[in-house]
What does this fold into?
Amino acid sequence: MAVEPLSQKEIEDRLAELPGWSVESGRLTRSYRLASHVAAAALVMHIAAVQDELDHHSDLGLGYNTVSLSVHTHSAGGAVTAKDFGLARRVEDIAPGHGAH
It folds into this structure.
């Protein structure tokens, strides 16, 4: 089943539920600052596991104490879709100091 791009209104509504996330250059993005490089590296590993579970992968970056994500759906022509927001919600749930714990 094809994944459909979200409308601008749908994107705005979903962004309102995910503080810190934005759409930049047609991609859903977020950066996290963590307490240490080790904490940031651990978050990258957790995100990688979630991405494999969902079979939906972002561009994932690790800095000294930061983690950044950028995602869109290739099968929807590089548009932002519900799959991207599903990944974002899962990342929020595991990010230290963010989401539900």
